[in-house]
């Protein structure tokens, strides 16, 4: 989807992007190889546009996620999900509470194949090195919760990733409420012993662990793991529905690009 995107260009909004698509300019390559400038663009502006698109194409081929994180509105980062899927980390944290003075207890990262849990008092300080490997983060309410907490915990860590916050993206496709409610709506099920747990249970489990209950930490980690592994399914759902809402001409007949 990212190569169909023109919203990262100066002065281009959704209506101009649609006009480009309607004129048969569906991809960056279409634009660069076009022999004449399209309606709505002067020759000088179209020349600048093609230079920027050539840079974007080269950045994509290099896997330079930072280029798109800088130039594309955060609300449109979902468009980069397929191209960066092999470098996506689904992320969720647990804390001792919701106040800024509370502490991070567990950070879970899932890359589609492997889940890694970073636990306070054990390996939490290894998280910054691990997250730098990825080009895109997928969270649920991470913009307001997870990322601010992690910035405070790791002030030297730069979050320059593409970021798909599913809470906001799901609202755009009509799915509202908390993560667990949305999971149930989408038919996602959890194991019985963690199905009824929520964020406050995660706080309780951490304190029980600190008092010496090993089983509480195991349950907390499993709860966190369910969060991040289910994010992958929801990211795919959001991507398909948001892409379908654009009605790209190349998607006629239901073909997924």
Summarize, please.
By secondary structure, the chain is α/β, with parallel strands linked by helices. It has helices spanning 14-22, 28-33, 43-62, 65-71, 127-131, 142-153, 166-172, 179-185, 192-195, 199-210, 214-246; strands at residues 88-95, 104-110, 115-119, 136-139, 162-165.
List the helices and strands and how they pair.
Blueprint: H1 14-22, H2 28-33, H3 43-62, H4 65-71, E1 88-95, E2 104-110, E3 115-119, H5 127-131, E4 136-139, H6 142-153, E5 162-165, H7 166-172, H8 179-185, H9 192-195, H10 199-210, H11 214-246
Parallel strand pairs: 1-4, 4-5
Antiparallel strand pairs: 1-2, 2-3
Structure overview:
The protein is an alpha/beta fold. The chain has two domains: 2-62, DNA polymerase, domain 1 (Orthogonal Bundle), CATH 1.10.150; 85-240, Ribonuclease H-like superfamily/Ribonuclease H (Nucleotidyltransferase, domain 5), CATH 3.30.420. The protein is built from eleven helices and five strands. The chain has helices spanning 14-22, 28-33, 43-62, 65-71, 127-131, 142-153, 166-172, 179-185, 192-195, 199-210, 214-246, and strands at residues 88-95, 104-110, 115-119, 136-139, 162-165. The protein is elongated, with a radius of gyration of 21 Å.
